[in-house]
Design goal:
The complex is a heterodimer of chains A (862) and B (145). Chain A is α+β, with helices and mostly antiparallel strands. In chain A, 39% of the residues lie in helices and 19% in strands. Chain B has six helices and five strands. Classes of the chains: A alpha+beta (862), B alpha/beta (145).
Chain lengths: 862, 145
């Protein structure tokens, strides 16, 4: 900054000297055009700088935050940032042709490093297209997905019965995409839509699913499936169809369950297997799966779809076994939910089912709750499944005998023992009494503890049901029965459902809590609610009293709904940080290494040159600094009076010079001086108003130690010697247009920059204020920087303090708000001078803080 | 005077919606669904100031198209619009002379600002050329007569 001030000083001396060259009208016109062109480049550069800094801040914020984002965010922010930085170099090059061309090479190099970080992972292409279940184990999950890998392991290693079948692998999915040239189209679609908006999410989901279901299955995949199908048929005499189940990479793992988020199709006729395959593969893009991946920081490429095809088991009874209580890690009894017919009746979460609790040490049933099971899902003769009513007298009978419950518990415990964690096992009982394992995955236990504090006082609106995910949270009621209603659910609402259908998992990232009339702990939506840490109560019975928009508080721990919002709960959400350790966050972190650190700090240091830039932030800093200097140097190169700075005519005891960049003066200003009323720059007037609003009391009274600090610093730091005697030490330089102002100033030992754009494009407006220096020792100067930061942070600025430099930034605000903030900055510019000297004394600091805050309140700004 | 804009994108509905919205904002808008049509429209309409060009199109892609546009109509400003962010295409497109590179979905206000800025740049460049001709006697005489 000092260098700029010096160069400006030199230029000004050349301008105010006795000789002024004569210009012909043509030459005047040419120089004017040249100047306008430079000003345009300068403005483009500043706008690009502003946008680049905003983008960097958004990336750093995402890294620090727990909120989810996808690779689309990382790639698009890195891309737009690179474009902004390129624009800055391009326009600096226009201001100073070829002087800083090395920056292009530096950008190329950094971009190459960034590209290597954000490239998508290489898809699996070398594995077989189809693998029989008999040939796979848990180590094959990258190729066949964890679900099928576990199932293969259960049969091949533990010898338990599983259905005969095969897996169409992730390699086949890759073939499907490549054969139809879908990879880049999928990426393009994902990147071009903001999936935070539910309507955009649903539309994108539909578009992506159509793309895949319409794809042609390549001949080699078709042949491989036909071969595997023949082998299964040869193995068993079953005439039933196939269960076609998703088995994506990352599904059914300890960290991510994806419970019920992908498609499963039951009892599919063998002739329709390929059609069911593409539909299941396409379910990678259900809205709920897309939201889930985003929440967990998974890249699109991290979840290549494998699909399992298993001979359908005609279950007489089916269900789910948990080897522990999902709500309470200390309760290790086995819980078996059972229903008549296929296990779908249980996992759908829609129907009442039996519950058997088996003690693991005694191996006995210690509790059983038998429900009236009025509905069963059974196989349809041709294809698919159908719902069947169960007659009243049968509905109330237990679905399982105690012996069978104990047998199922034993199998579940073997699985827990083998896999080393509590299990969630889907099982089927055949008509001849065999237990077949359909699926086993780690049980997702709630990790969120109940909200601290006293229980909620007062009578609840409703109570009962079962807590499927603990916690307390409130929000407005949002009933959802249909996609149309789902699209309207506001952020932070309490999702109210009749049935906990897993497809509403797409809304869990936006919901404060979930309540449902039906369902229980074993449903898929319950599993995902626990994973997301969203409080949920299911099976509450009629919720008709809840009116849309009415505010309620859901106390899942106390299984009750209270009227209104309970104060002091914040937004009540106690979300898990699912992004921590995720692939997407890891990529963002590695990308930020090349983006965010600022290593070029001091523009006067010899290292402040293109060869030293290490990051994109360095390039922006360098370009900004040099562009400001280049704008001033135009005058010294051409000694051109129309664009020479004028001295401001005023009554403040300092010298101010004003350079009109474009439309900063109300008209032609002749001579050496300009009056304030001839200046049309809104930001400069606002700054000036702030500066003169309150008379300055003069330097603060110094304590002995403050004075000693100043004297010591003066002997140690030659740059600070007798500044007041230097001819240009008190000069300050404005560059102005109607809506733009850049001020480089030096008040004694203090260097400051104020730069602002306050026009009618809110999104481009900004205010940057930085102040550095002081006469006291570094500790006091740093304390002064922090003192200013504390004051401005309250006004909505983003603050940064590095040593004795304080930087404040506000952006994308309406013109009048920016001007109010400029006024505050103007005030601080005058009134924080020399406050560094009193920074040792807390009482004085407090005094000044309250004085400054009082004055700022009186400015009528902010 | 209205700014003359040519929109080039193979997504017909996207171009039509954008054209409608820009027209409502007092822009004069031409539309093309491929680069070849765009080149014909540019040749027939020398008043076009700014081209908003999709990067990924069947046939001639946006990056090839910008080369052709800049070769035949160097004063026309081109804003690249892409649904698929890649570092290479973005900075590559800028190096080919794009005024800016925007990612879909783009906010209409943002696009309007960019088109206005691109138009301003074009006006400044034209003014510069005029003033340079103005100080070159033979050429300037020819221009005046």
């Amino acid at each position: 900054m000092t260098k700029i001030v010096q160069s400006i000083g030199g230029w000004l001396r050349s301008l105010v000297g006795p000789k002024q060259p004569e210009f012909s009208p043509e030459e005047t016109e040419r120089l004017s055009t040249l100047f306008r062109e430079r000003y345009h480049s300068f403005r483009v550069l500043l706008a690009a700088n502003e946008r680049a800094l905003e983008t960097m801040a958004a990336m750093e914020q995402a890294w620090a935050d727990t909120r989810p984002y996808g690779m689309d965010f990382v790639v698009s922010t890195a891309t737009s940032l690179s474009v902004r930085v390129y624009r800055m170099i391009q326009h600096l090059d226009a201001l100073a042709p070829d002087t800083y061309a090395e920056l292009f090479e530096r950008l190329d190099q950094i971009r190459g490093e960034l590209d290597a970080v954000i490239q998508p992972p290489t898809p699996i292409i070398t594995a077989p297209l189809v693998l029989p279940l008999s040939a796979i184990g848990r180590d094959d999950s990258a190729v066949v997905g964890a679900k099928m890998a576990n199932l293969g392991e259960i049969h091949n290693v533990l010898g338990l019965e599983v259905p005969a079948g095969f897996v169409i692998t992730a390699a086949a999915y890759g073939r499907l995409l490549d054969h139809n040239d879908l990879r880049s189209e999928i990426r393009r679609l994902i990147q071009s839509v903001e999936i935070d908006r539910p309507d955009a999410l649903f539309a994108l989901s539909s578009q992506l699913q159509q793309l895949i279901t319409a794809a042609e299955v390549p001949a080699d995949v078709r042949d491989a499936v036909a071969g595997a199908l023949a082998a299964v048929r040869a193995e068993s005499d079953s005439k039933n169809g196939f269960a076609v189940r998703s088995s994506a990479f990352g599904e059914d793992t300890a960290d991510t369950s994806f419970a019920g988020l992908y498609d499963s199709q039951l009892n599919i006729h063998q002739d329709n297997l390929l059609a069911a395959y593409v539909e299941t593969a396409a379910s990678k893009y259900t809205p709920q799966a897309m939201v889930y991946r985003r929440q967990h920081g998974l890249r699109d490429e991290d979840t290549e779809m494998a699909v399992g095809c298993m001979a359908m088991i005609d279950a007489s009874v089916g269900g789910v076994a948990y080897t522990a209580e999902p709500q309470d890690a200390t309760d290790r009894r086995i819980r078996i939910s059972a229903a008549v017919g296929l296990p779908k009746t249980v996992v759908d979460g829609r129907f009442e089912t039996d519950l058997f609790i088996v003690d693991r040490s005694s191996g006995t049933v210690v509790d059983r709750r038998i429900a009236a099971k009025t509905t069963a899902f059974v196989l349809r003769p041709g294809e698919g499944i159908t719902r069947q009513e169960i007659p009243g007298e049968v509905a109330g009978r237990p679905a399982l005998t105690d012996e069978k419950a104990v047998e199922i518990a034993g199998i579940a415990l073997r699985l827990e023992d083998h896999f080393g964690v509590a299990q969630d096992v889907e099982w089927a009982l055949t008509s001849d009494g065999r237990v077949v394992v359909l699926q086993a995955r780690p049980l997702h236990q709630a990790t969120v503890t109940a909200a601290a504090g006293a229980p909620i006082a007062g009578d609840p609106l409703l109570s009962g049901g079962v807590c499927v995910s603990p916690g307390i949270a409130g929000g407005p009621v949002s009933w959802v029965h249909s996609d149309r209603e789902a699209l309207k659910m506001p952020e932070g609402a309490v999702l109210v459902l009749d049935y906990p259908d897993p497809r509403w998992a797409a809304l869990l990232d936006r919901a404060a809590a979930v309540v449902a009339e039906h369902g229980g702990i074993a449903g898929h939506l319950a599993t995902v609610a626990r994973e997301f840490g969203v409080p949920a109560i299911f099976g509450m019975g009629s919720l008709d009293v809840l009116r849309r928009g009415e505010e309620i508080t859901v106390d899942a721990d106390g299984v009750a709904i209270h009227p209104g919002l309970i104060p002091g709960l914040g937004d009540g959400r106690q979300r898990r940080n699912l992004m921590a350790g995720s692939p997407v966050r890891e990529v963002l972190g590695r990308a930020l290494v090349h983006i965010a650190p600022l290593t070029l700090l001091d523009p006067n240091a010899p290292e402040f040159r293109p060869a030293s830039v290490r990051t994109l932030h360095d390039i922006t800093r360098f370009c900004h600094e040099k562009a400001v200097a280049e704008m001033f140097s135009f005058g010294s190169e051409h000694s051109f009076p129309r664009f020479a700075a004028k001295q401001l005519h005023h009554n403040v005891p300092m010298q101010w010079w004003v350079l009109n960049l474009d439309d900063g003066f109300t008209g032609e200003v002749k001579g050496k001086y300009v009056h304030l009323n001839e200046i049309s720059c809104g930001p400069m007037h606002a700054l000036w108003d702030g500066m003169i609003a309150v008379p300055w009391d003069g330097p603060p009274a110094l304590s002995g130690s403050g004075l000693a600090s100043v004297l010591f610093e003066a002997t140690r730091n030659p740059a600070l010697a007798t500044p007041f005697r230097k001819p240009y030490a008190q000069r300050n330089y404005f560059m102005v247009s109607k809506n733009f102002m850049n001020l480089q100033s030096r008040f004694g030992f203090h260097f400051s920059t104020v730069e602002t754009l306050a026009g009618d494009r809110d999104s481009e407006n900004y205010l940057l204020f930085s102040l550095k220096g002081g006469a006291a020792d570094i500790e006091r100067r740093a304390a002064r920087a922090q003192f200013i930061a504390d004051i401005l942070a309250d006004k909505g600025f983003a603050m940064k303090v590095i040593e004795d430099t304080v930087t404040a930034r506000a952006s994308a605000l309406p013109q009048e708000i920016v001007l109010d903030l400029v006024k505050i900055v103007g005030y601080l510019l005058m009134h924080t001078r020399q406050l560094d000297m009193i920074m040792g004394d807390q009482r004085t600091i407090d005094h000044y803080r309250s004085k400054l805050e009082g004055d700022i309140a009186g400015l009528g700004a902010g | 005077m209205a700014i003359n804009v040519l929109l080039v994108d193979d997504e017909t509905s996207f171009v039509e919606t954008l054209a409608r919205r820009l027209t409502l904002r007092q822009f004069a808008v031409w539309q093309a669904n491929d680069a070849e049509t765009a080149m014909r429209i540019l040749a027939d309409n020398p008043t076009i100031d700014v081209v908003v060009l999709d990067v990924k199109m069947p046939g001639t892609d946006g990056l090839t198209a910008i080369k052709n546009i800049k070769r035949r109509h160097p004063m026309v400003e081109v804003i690249l619009l892409s649904g698929h962010a890649t570092l290479e295409a973005s900075v590559g497109g800028m190096a080919l002379g794009a005024f800016d590179y925007l990612l879909k979905p783009v906010r209409i206000d943002e696009l309007v600002y960019k088109v206005e800025d691109a138009h301003r740049r074009k006006a400044i460049q034209e003014e510069k050329i005029r003033s340079l001709r103005g100080v070159t006697p033979p050429e300037s005489n020819e221009q005046k007569t």
